[in-house]
Amino acid sequence: MKELICIVCPNGCHLRVDEEKDYLVTGNACPRGAEYGKTELQNPVRVITSTVRCRGGAYPRCPVKTNRPVPKGKIWSVMEAMEQVSLSAPVKIGDVVIENICGTGADLVATRNMEKEN
Questions:
Q1: What number is the average pLDDT over the span 61-69?
Q2: Across-strand partners of 96?
Q3: Dist CA 118 CA 35 (whole Å)
């Protein structure tokens, strides 16, 4: 039996997941907690947020995130791919920075408009 704290909503339910009973989840206040508990043990995923270099912009780095969760085991590969990126201003929110990053099916997208430096 594994114990987790659900991060789906602010309630922070204390979940118990029984791997021997087909990942039966107890302690959840809503169905989303049950899904989180099961998924977290079978295939944990995370949305990655960070920054990448940006040339010619108002700031030297532009915030980015994956547009969907990626497998937890690929986080370091994704971070290494982001380290190689250098954008050129202007950048718009939602611009795809890297499509299908590291074969995860997720796109890395800009989360801030970055105007050209005057």
A1: 98
A2: 109
A3: 49
Residue 116 counted as domain residue = no
Provide the domain count of the chain.
Answer: 2
Question: What's the pTM?
Answer: 0.84
Q: Is residue 118 part of a domain?
A: no
The H or E element containing residue 34 is: helix 31-42
How distant, in Å, are the alpha carbons of 34, 36, 78, 97 from that of 41?
Answer: 11, 9, 21, 30
Q: Are residues 31 and 70 in the same domain?
A: no
Q: Specify the pLDDT at position 89.
A: 96
34 is written with which tokens? 């049950």
pLDDT category, 118, cuts 50, 70, 90? confident
Domain of residue 28, residue span? 2-42
